[in-house]
Design goal:
The chain is built from 3 helices and no strands. It is mainly α. The longest helix has 23 residues.
Length: about 90
């Protein structure tokens, strides 16, 4: 999202986050239905990512799209780690 998001952009991000929370709760809250380990959950996420990529992008563009997607995932995870990091020291 841009530095100064429009109300429409902000609403879209909020809706995406809400949908993501619902989907995550379904996946992680019902692990016993398809496996109980984090590896099972990650395998399900892999299958979903492949399916969405095949549905949304032409063959041949998928590699570039996945590289961009994974770069964004890494950025967001780094942001979460930094946000949760305790500051130590004096300045």
């Amino acid at each position: 999202m841009s530095t100064n998001p429009t109300p429409e952009e902000y609403a879209a991000v909020e809706r995406h986050n809400q949908l993501a929370r619902e989907i995550i709760t379904q996946i992680t809250g019902q692990r016993t239905g398809f496996g109980s380990s984090p590896a099972d959950v990650l395998m399900l996420c892999e299958s979903i990512l492949v399916g969405v990529t095949l549905e949304c992008f032409q063959a041949g563009t998928d590699v570039q799209v996945l590289e961009i997607l994974l770069a964004r995932v890494k950025e967001r995870l780094a942001g979460v780690r930094l946000k949760n990091m305790e500051v130590q020291g004096r300045g």
